[in-house]
Amino acid sequence: MLNLVLFGPPGAGKGTQSTKLIDKYNLVHLSTGDIFRHNIKGETELGKLAKSYIDKGELVPDEVTISMLESEVKSHPEANGFIFDGFPRTEAQAGALDKFLTANNTAITCMLALTDIPQEELVTRILGRAKDSGRADDANEETIKNRLNVYEKDTAVVASFYQKQDKFIGINGVGEIDTIFSSICSKIDEVSNS
Ligand code: ADP
After folding, report:
1. How far does the centroid of ligand 1 lie from the alpha carbon of residue 63, in Å?
2. At a CB cut-off of 8 Å and minimum separation 6, what does 164 contact?
3. pLDDT of residue 94
4. Which of 137, 142, 145 maximizes ligand 1 atoms within 8 Å of its Cβ, making it the mutation to test the pocket?
5. What is the distance of C-alpha 6 from the center of its chain?
6. Per CATH, domain 2-183 is 3.40.50.2000
7. Span 105-116, average pLDDT
8. How far, in Å, from the CA of 147 to the mean position of ligand 1?
9. Which sequence positions are flagged as catalytic?
10. Summary mean pLDDT of the chain
């Protein structure tokens, strides 16, 4: 199985690259943000809970996020592999994912991290996306700043988790979408042929 963690701060381009990667590698895309938004739209209990955190730019609690992610993985027994987008976002989530995948006789192949994107560029990209996405958390600059702070405080450490396992691959996230996509693909091909 090819199991990829696509990593980077809000606005890094994870969603954009995921869409291209699932086509090329025939993977199942699991974006925790998309799943939460789907639940918010459907006004489920999970959606109501998630909304109260997302609107403030805070993380949804680990317990809730981990069990949701695990049931999504279980609902795709036929998958060739997964792209985890927006997960894991804390060290606890990373540990839980490792444990869960091991119990299912598989593992993370590598983490692909979109790096070196200046904060101002992230804010500009997110505000630009807000025009089409209709996402309340994209439209408010204070919420965006909080998401970027939460990323630094709780999420950035997840990179070290995979560095320690020698599974971390950094890719410069500034440039044309297709150029970044090509860099990601050559890294994936290197890892899967080794
Ligand atoms: P972005 O990467 O632009 O922040 P996402 O769609 O990945 O957008 O996430 C939107 C929001 O959903 C996050 O700000 C957070 O509140 C919540 N969320 C998404 N994934 C997780 C996660 N793994 N753990 C906790 N909260 C999450």
Report:
1. 14
2. none
3. 98
4. 137
5. 5
6. no
7. 98
8. 9
9. 14, 89, 129, 135, 147
10. 97
- Three-state DSSP at 78 gives coil
Per-residue pLDDT tens over the stretch 26-42? 999 999 999 999 999 99
Does residue 89 surpass a pLDDT of 90?
A: yes
**Tell me, what's the pLDDT at 193?**
85
Burial string for 38-62 (b: 16+ CB within 10 Å, else e) reads ebbeeeeebbebbbebbeebebbeb
CA of 86 to the centre of ligand 1 (A): 6
The whole-number pLDDT of residue 56 equals 96
Section 76-95 average pLDDT:
97
Question: Which atom of ligand 1 is found nearest the CA of 89?
Answer: 23
pTM of this prediction exceeds 0.90:
yes
Total Cβ atoms within 10 A of residue 159 = 18
Ligand 1 neighbours, Cβ below 6 Å, are: 10-11, 14, 32-33, 36, 53-54, 57-60, 65, 86-87, 89, 93, 137, 147
